[in-house]
Design a protein that fits this description.
CATH architecture of the largest domain: 3-Layer(aba) Sandwich
Shape: elongated
Radius of gyration: 34 Å
Distance between the termini: 127 Å
Order of helices and strands: HEHEHEEHEEEEEHHEEEEEEEEHHH
Largest sheet: 8 strands, mixed
CATH topology of the largest domain: Rossmann fold
Number of domains: 2
Number of strands: 17
Structural class: alpha+beta
Length: 390
Amino acid sequence: MKTYIGKIGSEFFEGTPSVGDLSHADCIVLIGYPLPSSGDELLRQIKTVVEKERKPIFLILSREVDLGKLRSLEGVLPVNVQSIKRDEFQVFVQIPESQRFNTLLQLSGSNGIDSWNQLPPIFRTQSSFKAKPESDVLGFVRIQNVTTNEPLIVTRRLNHYRSLAVLGYGIWRWQLLAEGNHPGGGVLQPFIANAIRWLTTKEDEKPVQVIATKELFDGSEPVRFLSQVYDQGYNPIENAEVKVAIRGEGGVQRELFLSPSGHGRYEGDAGSLPAGRYSFVGTATLGGQNPVVVGADTGRFTVGEVNVEFTETRMNVSLLRQIAHRTGGTMVFPENIKGLLDPLATSDALKSAEASTSYDLTPWRNPYLISIVVLIFSLEWFLRKRNGML
């Protein structure tokens, strides 16, 4: 490993890295770089080497990073800088359920993503980032109990090279503040090791790659597939026909065609499937009447019987407070229910109000009612006549 530590200005204590130094690297790691004083020429060289030689790049932000200069590297990063703000705040990382089995997040002898979601907060500016369409967001920004759509850990694997970005700083807190018996202990070092191992792993040479987005699906959610199709020169193929044939236990079979999403990528879903284990074969072809097979890929997944409503059974206090605030209500716990009655008694919205309705009935305009009245009077006259009362 060769390190370069920047001085004030565009120089480094070890000397400015050359194009040869960058070319010989297995992975380029940028920690708190570029700074406002960093040279534009070195940034251009980094981008050129990464693009031409498909070097993996690992970005970890710091408060001093110049996001304006970082935009010059957006072509090789998994995110784009949307807006730049210097205000700092603390955030937690929230790993989505879809990334539970991601190799980058695996921790030996731990509770998986539960350990990640219990980590101490790190720092981040209020700058906004947007993950690229072909990128995968491994972790989102969580503020207290509210998970946002802002990415925090993002990876990208495209056209035979990989990149990874941690869009926060102070990740040492994951190690120092989580030591001992803290639930999130032992995350930082395995994550860095997994990241370097993943970045430096050579891409699969298969021209067609088809994967299920998860290894375990809930019985009520659609089973989604992603695919990448390349030619022999590893250039994306935009007009391929990608078919996925699914076979499950008990003779369950289903076929679907994936839709193109750009850059040689395809996606689609097979809807919800019965619980069980499934295998699939994805095949990509070119041409109409006489199609040419580009390649094929296989995989497996499982559909469980766990209902979505049981994946998170704890009360979401923050969400309930937001709903109460926006609807003009009040959230109270059972032990404080008595405190809710007095405000209700004095509320203007619950004061009694009187309403009256009048309806005029005109008998002579209703022939049926008149007929009934005449019939009643005739019956009375007949009875009186028969009994000698007239």
